Structure formats: C-alpha cells, structure tokens
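tool_call: predict_structure(chain=1)
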Amino acid sequence: MKLIIQIPCLNEEVTLPQTLADLPREVDGITDVEWLIIDDGSTDATVDVARANGVDHIVRLTNNRGLAAGFQAGLDACLKLGADVIVNTDADNQYYGADIAKLVEPIVDGRADMVVGDRQTDTISEFSPIKKRLQKLGSWVVRQASETDVPDTTSGFRAYNREAALQMAVVSRFTYTLETIIQAGKLLVAVEDVPVRTNPKTRESRLFPSTWSYVPSQRDLDLSDLRAIRTDARLLHRRSNSGFRGADSVHALLHLLGPGRWRRARSVADLRHRTLQRCRSNGRAGRDR
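tool_result:
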C-alpha cells in the first residue's frame, strides 16, 4: 500500500525544511511512503529546498492559483502516481508529523475513506477566544450542511483513500477544507476524525491575515453555495449509483453551481475527467498485474 504525503507550498523556503524533517518515512500498514509538494507559483527557493530535503515528487503550477487549486492538483498527481492513501498537510509545520500514523490508521483498517485531524482548537493557546468561537461556529454550520460529525472542519491535516480522492472535485477558488467535507458527507464517503497535535506557530497565516478577515473571505462558500453543494452532492450520489460517473457527474455538479462558477471551473472539470480516466485505467492495470 502506497502513501503519498502532499504539501501545497507558496514561498515556503524557510519553513519547509522543518516541516519535512517532521514527516515519517515509515508508517504501520504502509509499504511505501513518498513526499510530494505542489509549488503554487513560488518566487523563492521552495523547489530547490524541497529537492535538497528529499522530496520525491514536485508539481509546479506556472502561476499562483490558490490553496484550493493546489490541493486539487496534488490529489490528481498523487492518484496518477498510484497512491492508495493521500495525506495532506501544511508547509508551515502547523501539524505534528508523527500523527500521520493516527490519520491513516482508520483507512488502513478499512473503517474510513476520509479522516480529518481534530486540532482540538479549545486547547490551542495561540488561538484567541474570538477565533475559537468562530472556528466552533463555522464547524457547526458545515456539520449541518454535510451531515457529518467532524469537529474541526477547517483542519487541513487529513487523509483520503484512493476512492474518496477520486470523488473529490474542488470548485472553490479559496479553500478546499469545507467543500470537501460537504461533498464527502453527501456522497456517503465514510468520514472519521482523530485528535492530532499541533506545533508552535512558525508564522502568521497567509490564508487569513486576521481573525476578522476569515468571514468576508468565505464569500465563495456562503449559505447559497452550501445549499448548491448539498443539491449537487445528492445528484452525484444518484448518478453514481446509476452508473453516471467521472466527469459527467462533475459537469452536472458545476452546472448546478451557476453559470459564473461553471465557466470558471469547466476547464478544471475537463482536466479532472482525463485524470480520472488515467487513474482508473492505472488502477485496473495494477490489480491485473
């Protein structure tokens, strides 16, 4: 069983060595552990630092496309590389690398398709009281929309098995964390959460410069979008049960999201279609060998 640990990166030459040093090369139940970074248009020495620190695979985006696009590009690359399990972590060393074993255990044991690391935000001293309240409120809203029990929905420390990764189709320009949980819940992907540890903060968040910037930044996932994603996921589930799979399902999802987001994501869906075809073909070939 192959595990690939993916790390989206934007100008992370300073923090990346520490992050990589914290990652495991051996995990119980896994035969191969590989590292992959997604270089989201970095202008510093991120790629050189990655190579010098033993990263196995590098995906380079020609310009800065944002965290969500980087995450999706990483998933697609990991699938093409034959990953059975994919772990996503952050380049700022926020998450405790040794807890990757805890993340993948439910997948290795066959209990879950997707596992989200629960940072137990109430215990993080660096989080202000207002940030803790906003985290709780946001997670509650996503739990209602997704019908899951994930306590820390904004955690980027998570694991997917191959089948769950094949079903993820991130449309948002901003972040993947909430959208993928809603999709997983509505697609009946088996989701679990496990408590994980965090490391001391190495820098300020680049996604949210301040606590209050979080709220307006969520305009891509406002209540209307949540309702749309819920409807889309139900359609995807019905279609997948009737044999309507792959990019056809993704195109149907995007149509329902509205013309603006459809135009924006159509090229992504087309690329996703080709990727899914290759991944499924590679998977069948691997099983036949």
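agent: The first strand starts at residue 2 and ends at 9. Proceeding to next step.
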